[in-house]
Amino acid sequence: MKLVSSREMLLKAQREGYAVPAFNIHNMETLKSVIEVANEMESPVILAATPGTVKYAGELYLLKLAESAAELAKVPVALHLDHHEDLDDIKACIEMGYPSAMIDASKESFEENINRTKEIVKVAHRWDATVEAELGTLAGIEDDLEVDEKNALYTDPQKAKEFVEKTGVDSLAIAIGTAHGLYKSEPKLDFERLEIIRRLVEVPLVLHGASGVPAESVKRAIKLGICKVNIATELKIPFASAIKDHFEHNPNANDPRKYLIPAQEAMKSVVRDKIAMCGSEGKA
Ligand code: 13P
Predict the structure, then answer these.
(1) Are strands 179-180 and 139-142 parallel, antiparallel or unpaired?
(2) Is pLDDT at 147 greater than 80 in this prediction?
(3) Can you give the pLDDT at residue 249?
(4) Which residues on adjacent β-strands are paired with residue 135?
(5) Using one digit for the tens of pLDDT, what is the confidence trace for 80-119?
(6) How remote is the CA of residue 138 from the centroid of ligand 1, in Å?
(7) Other beta carbons less than 10 A from residue 107's beta carbon
(8) By the 8 A CB rule, do 6 and 80 touch?
(9) DSSP code of 39?
(10) C-beta of 279 in contact with ligand 1 (< 6 A)
(11) What is the reported pTM?
């Protein structure tokens, strides 16, 4: 199959009441682990790449890697720019063939967030690419972006409605109590706020910062209208732990084709759990 934008995927998920998992990929091993399990479980999947990942891999390398993965996969695979802030970078990637992008201007004023999102929507729709924006601010760390708890801001439902109407954005990431990275204590999600936003906003809603959120809370959020669930940290940790563990037991190991195998198996087990949590198994 060809790489797809996340538009149809998310609208189908919205109609049928599940969420598409978006896994942040950092290298070929993460990507392969995600695709193998998505194939096995017949789940649509979104490969998400932050600016850090695009810089690390190279934008064309990453695009070609994702295109190859999609071509070999039996399930729909989308490639999505995650938390990109630079308008020129986003436009360049879309023109290169990236089918889906998040413009994250959530730290800007409401008006400026609208302006930047509108600008990206205009270019993206010309290329039939999908756009996600964010309203509200999540605490935590993603890439080099760090927001402390006192600066986190929940999404205002009325503003969300106005934002979507004025920008024509395809999906909206909302802040309802999740954070990027690990939690110090169990996160309490504002389900009431989610319900109100869902009533006012028609486009698919996105939950960032799903690592460390109890599966029951994520499932409830999906029932209330979340159609895309973002997972990054919970893949990074088993990847690193499995490598550390391998070297602890094999201090003289030096073959990446061997020491990266347990790392992939560890990630695959997380991907399996997350697809099951999202309810996207068999929805490809
Ligand atoms: P986590 O690292 O908390 O899973 O967040 C992922 C995310 O929201 C990426 O945009």
Answers:
(1) parallel
(2) no
(3) 97
(4) 174
(5) 999 999 999 999 999 999 999 999 999 999 999 999 999 9
(6) 10
(7) 14
(8) yes
(9) H
(10) no
(11) 0.95
